[in-house]
Design brief:
Length: 178
């Protein structure tokens, strides 16, 4: 049986036409204040292109509770369900699969550029400037007749790119062509 939770935790939810319902609110029948999904405890379920919702709302203005039992159609019309809240909530809990919160698709991760080994260079500065993750950082490296100066540490996140005149060495050190 599915547990009850804040209705806002179920949102956004898809409806039949590909749209998503991301917000939901009702007016308090006692004071007229608009009560958002953050103040409703219950269950919501996507069924046959519609969203069924059964919750107990607590008005933050007057602190009174009221039931919310409805179906939201694919054209975003809210239809009242005339079952007692306990019956409709129990029905939804029985027929609904366990809720998995929506996950935003991850941004594509850029492929890690090809890394050269420090051993592939013909020459390097005599003294290391320091080290990073146990690898020595030399002020410059030489291969053939080209010199490369230490530029920065490569973080490897999806936003970091190497220029055409930069080399990645030992998977974490970036050297730039002089």
């Amino acid at each position: 049986m599915r547990k009850t939770d804040r209705i806002s935790h179920f949102l956004p939810m898809p409806v039949g036409n590909g749209d998503r319902i991301s917000k939901f609110s009702k007016k308090c029948p006692h004071c007229g204040h608009v009560v958002s999904a953050d103040h409703m405890m219950g269950v919501a379920s996507a069924m046959k292109g519609q969203i069924a919702l059964a919750a107990e709302a607590e008005c933050p203005a007057c602190r009174r509770s009221f039931p919310v039992s409805c179906v939201i159609t694919s054209d975003k019309k809210v239809l009242r369900v005339r079952l007692p809240l306990w019956a409709f909530r129990s029905y939804l809990q029985l027929i609904s699969p366990p809720f998995v919160p929506p996950v935003e698709p991850a941004a594509p991760v850029a492929a890690t550029p090809h890394s050269l080994s420090l051993d592939t260079f013909d020459d390097k500065a005599e003294i290391a400037l320091g080290s990073y993750q146990g690898r020595p950082i030399y002020a410059w490296l030489k291969t053939g007749n080209q010199y490369y100066d230490f530029e920065r540490v490569f973080a490897g996140n999806q936003f970091e790119r190497l220029d055409g005149n930069e080399l990645l060495v030992d998977t974490c050190l970036v050297y730039r062509l002089r």
